[in-house]
Design goal:
It is built from four helices and six strands; from the N terminus they run ββαβαββαβα. By secondary structure, the protein is α/β, with parallel strands linked by helices. The protein has a four-stranded parallel beta sheet with strand order 3-4-5-6, sandwiched between helices. α1 crosses α2.
Amino acid sequence: MPVSLNMNMAMPSWFDIIGLSPDSQEDEAGIKQAAENVKALIDQEVKNGIPSNRIILGGFSQGGALSLYTALTTHQKLAGVVALSCWLPLRASFPQGPISGVNKDIAVLQCHGDCDPLVPLMFGSLTVEKLKSMINPANVTFRTYSGMMHSSCIEEMMDVKQFIDKHLPPID
């Protein structure tokens, strides 16, 4: 899809990105539509026999942002969220206190590099503080990685593996 920030050139994208500052305008309709698309995928998995509480949403950058937004707005109880190098979109649309939805106690692993030039660490820090005010703060883990840019590293992937192993234990 064409992305405003990319001089309107097409690129893989869940929704339009207009700017990369905390006060940038956001593509509200695109974000909400993308979340509905993910919710439809969750519904399909549930129809296929996978309980929603055995589903972890996750993504990197825009995908992580969408995972957070979807988890906080869905009516399906989820196992967790892995949010890598991202932010909470439409953060002003959420309440100034705890949410009352089915995922108010959801486990979140949020990871960010301290040298990210595209989605600065400040976005991650603002997001984790907002999350801790909305859901059980004991279930929110924020990890930073020294020297990591807008990418990933082995240490981060090991943290993701541990999170998944913990929140999706084998079924007998």
